[in-house]
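Lab notebook, bench 4. Still working through the backlog of constructs that have no structural model yet. Next entry is a single chain of 84 residues. Request: give me the structure tokens for it.
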Amino acid sequence: MTKEEQTLDTLTQIFRDVLDDDELVLKRELTAKDVDGWDSLTHIRLLVTIERMFKIKFTLPEVRELKNVGELADLIQARTALSQ
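Model written out:
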């Protein structure tokens, strides 16, 4: 399993837990508009959970620039690479 696949797998578990949807399948192009229940409050819960799980911190400008799950995964990989 590649690092990207591992990241997406971990993200899938986080999204399923936070959104309470065991059937949710993450794809790189997925956005909040594509998922029922993914509102602004849920978005914050997702980001906080992701930060804790990956032991990273996002900046507000980074979060604002994210367009989809793929960009989120890329940012996580970049951040985790810097912290190693």
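Notes after review: The helical segments are 3-19, 40-54, 60-65, 69-83. Residues 19 and 36 are 9 Å apart (CA to CA). Flag for follow-up if needed.
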